């Protein structure tokens, strides 16, 4: 990497954005920096001239984000931590499949970040006809120049979303991401970045960055289970997933506003897992809205088993938060209290 002339850093991790056709289908391509710079030079002169310059860096291997793991989230946060002081904004180029997971995890690891970290990707490769890649990179660069943006945000198809609130919602369409329970942070209006007042974390910053960069690898490759209820699920089935020794916590996707079948055996398994010290949190299977455990009699079992309410968090935010809390030297009571607290506007 060159000495920082510009104050923006672009980190390329892979994804469709940089992919090329191979006999096996789309696969991460190399030499992405010159390809990206060439593509940016094709923008109309006035737009090109108003774009900020940037330094470029790539992770050791470009991957399809469907292979990303918590170890990759950790390595990326470490890379940002190592270099961010020299820059006023960071852009992460990443595959879309697990972009919301990485954005959520980065938000928890980079708590208190006082500059923009803008993640983006594309639905079609940079060199493909009708690609959305260049427009997404351009928008991400423009938002990364905004000092009032002080959090991990996801830019896609003209819209800026809080990273830890996002979900990938479309398999093909260009506006692939939603933020089901939080409004847009901003939009590109006539090519200019507009941040909506009062929605960002800037007012919540306490003046110092307080990154938390625990070693996720100590937890094993898959420390948190994701369990979605289905009608007729038995206690045995739940026990097989939840009582596995490798599992330190679980996301339970329950019914509607916070309900579970009236089956004492199911609740007993949850209570047993809780007794073993596992951190268990519930959110709804409904994509929109919050849960309120105990509002219905059908939610009492969750209360008895001390299942934590994930409120209106996304599955991605809930799981990355559970992993983040489990990886830290906290007491069970502190983990539970942190889980119930909004750390980075995730709930
Ligand atoms: N499979 C790709 C990835 O997540 C999808 C994309 O980037 N559009 O890396």
UniProtKB/TrEMBL annotation:
Pfam families: Asparaginase, Asparaginase_C. Coiled coil: none annotated. It comes from the Bacteria. Residues 224-339 form the Asparaginase/glutaminase C-terminal domain. InterPro entries: Asp/glu_Ase-like_sf, Asparaginase/glutaminase-like, Asparaginase/glutaminase_AS2, Asparaginase_C, L-asparaginase_C, L-asparaginase_I, L-asparaginase_N, L-asparaginase_N_sf. SUPFAM superfamilies: Glutaminase/Asparaginase. This is L-asparaginase. Residues 7-191 form the L-asparaginase N-terminal domain. It comes from Onishia taeanensis. The active site is at residues 16, 96. SMART domains: Asparaginase. GO terms for molecular function: asparaginase activity. Substrate binds at residues 65, 96-97. Gene3D superfamilies: 3.40.50.40, L-asparaginase, N-terminal domain. Signal peptide: none annotated.
């Amino acid at each position: 990497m060159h000495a920082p002339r510009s104050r923006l850093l672009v980190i390329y991790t892979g994804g469709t954005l940089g992919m090329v056709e191979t006999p096996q289908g789309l696969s991460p391509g190399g030499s992405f920096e010159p390809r990206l710079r060439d593509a940016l030079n094709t923008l109309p002169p006035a737009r090109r001239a108003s774009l900020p310059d940037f330094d470029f860096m790539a992770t050791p291997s470009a991957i399809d984000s469907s292979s990303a793991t918590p170890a990759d989230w950790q390595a990326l946060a470490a890379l940002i931590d190592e270099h961010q002081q020299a820059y006023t904004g960071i852009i992460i180029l990443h595959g879309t499949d697990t972009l919301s997971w990485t954005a959520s995890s980065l938000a928890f690891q980079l708590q208190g970040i006082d500059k923009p970290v803008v993640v983006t990707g594309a639905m079609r490769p940079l060199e493909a006809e009708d690609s959305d890649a260049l427009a997404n990179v351009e928008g991400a660069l423009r938002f990364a120049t905004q000092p009032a943006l002080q959090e991990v945000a996801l830019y896609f198809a003209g819209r800026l979303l809080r990273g830890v609130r996002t979900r990938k919602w479309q398999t093909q369409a260009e506006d692939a991401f939603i933020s089901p329970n939080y409004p847009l942070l901003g939009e590109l209006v006539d090519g200019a970045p507009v941040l909506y007042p009062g929605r960002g974390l800037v007012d919540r910053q306490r003046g110092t960055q307080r990154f938390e960069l625990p070693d996720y690898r100590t937890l094993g490759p898959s420390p948190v289970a994701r369990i979605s209820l289905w009608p007729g699920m038995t206690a045995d089935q739940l026990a097989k997933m939840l009582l596995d020794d490798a599992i330190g916590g679980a996301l339970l996707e329950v019914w509607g506003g916070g309900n579970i079948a009236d089956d004492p055996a199911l609740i007993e398994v949850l209570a047993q897992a809780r007794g073993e010290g596992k951190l268990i949190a519930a959110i709804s299977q409904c994509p929109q809205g919050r849960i309120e455990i105990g509002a219905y009699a059908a939610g009492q079992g969750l209360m008895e088993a001390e299942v934590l309410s994930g409120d209106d968090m996304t599955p991605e935010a809930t799981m990355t938060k559970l992993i983040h809390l489990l990886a830290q030297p906290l007491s069970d009571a502190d983990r539970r209290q942190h889980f119930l607290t909004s750390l980075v506007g995730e709930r």
